[in-house]
Amino acid sequence: KLWMADQKFANDPTSCCDPVESSSSSHQLPSYTMSLKVLDKLGPKSLFDSHCHLDFIMFWRAPHMELESFDQFVHAYPLMGHTSLEGFITNFCAPKLWMEHLVSPSPLIHSLLSRPSVFYTIGCHPHFARELLISRNYKQLELLIEKAGSSCVAIGECGLDTGNKNSEKMSDQVEVFKLQIKLAVRLHKPLVLHIRGAEEEAIRAMEQVGLPADWPIHRHCWNDEWKVCQ
Fold first, then answer.
1. Helix axes 199-209, 170-187, angle to 10 degrees
2. What is the pTM of this model?
3. 3-state DSSP assignment of residue 69
4. What pLDDT, in 10s, does the model give residues 7-39?
């Protein structure tokens, strides 16, 4: 998010994680701008980004940089190396990307994930549901998470999305969502959820799979009321 603000991509229509409209009209969040000037006013290690997509940035948005190490990326975008940033969790949720870059990590990925301040998740975003229905992709997801170290902190982001940017069938999304819930329970991993316009369907899927009510979940892009969250 720091990099996106620096690059003025905050309102990029191609983003799969655009904020959703809140059902509460009385609690509007204030707008903000993250910049070096703002960060310089904060103390060291006062920020932690719990949800970002560095693979999207490095391989889809900035392939022209031809990065060989994450240090090069930080040098090009100083916001990422600011002392106020304690660390971040980057979500690998596009099977095509984690199949290509995590199965046999390149020097760039190795330099990223070897940083003590970097944590990550692996899963399948609902926009890519069909890709996880390919048997070898799902088996590779299992292997990646089983062999991952403590820096792999969750499965996801995964879930259901009825937005007009998503062309995946709801039946496929539900099947893939359930697969990842079962995997999270089996491997004792938290879940990162992306639910848009499908609250009831998501709750039903979690209940059908038997996800415990107290399972650790990170619900990102959340801007609704507490009673809805409950």
1. 40
2. 0.84
3. coil
4. 433 334 344 555 433 344 445 555 656 677 888
